[in-house]
Amino acid sequence: ELRIQNREPQKNDKQQCSIIEYPHIIKLVIVESHESYLEQFLNNSKMYLSDNIYLRVDYDSLQRVTHNFTSDTTRMNCAKIKYLNLDIQPELSLDLIKDYFPHAELC
Does 1 fall in a domain? Predict the structure, then answer.
């Protein structure tokens, strides 16, 4: 499990780096964190995630980072999520979430 809880933004967020790989992560918890961390993990040009990941995240942050579930740069890694745990359950956008996370079970 990798848990990130840091409300401070990352420094050098625009820095060019190689794609980071976490091949053995199966559980990723990003709560009470600056959105730059969530964006880094979901952006496929910054991070490679293996399949079947459990992700726990705040719904509002997820919605902003994915640009209301329309961003192509986060879609690839979101498709690898098998279990999605949203800290705040949305009343709307469930169809958007299911389309954006096609293999995820909401828990």
Answer: no
Q: Which tokens go with 75? A: 């879609």
Q: How many C-beta atoms surround the C-beta of residue 25 within 10 A? A: 15
55 belongs to a structural domain:
yes
pLDDT above 80: residue 14: no
Q: How do residues 61-96 score in pLDDT, each as one tens digit?
A: 999 999 999 999 999 999 999 999 998 776 667 888
The residue range of the domain holding 83 is 21-106
Instruction: Assess if residue 5 is contained within a domain.
Output: no
* Overall number of domains in the chain: 1
What would the pLDDT profile of 19-39 be if each residue is shown by its tens digit? 889 888 999 999 989 999 999
* b/e sequence 56-89, b meaning 16+ C-beta within 10 Å: bbbeebbbebbeebeeeebbebbebbebbbbeee
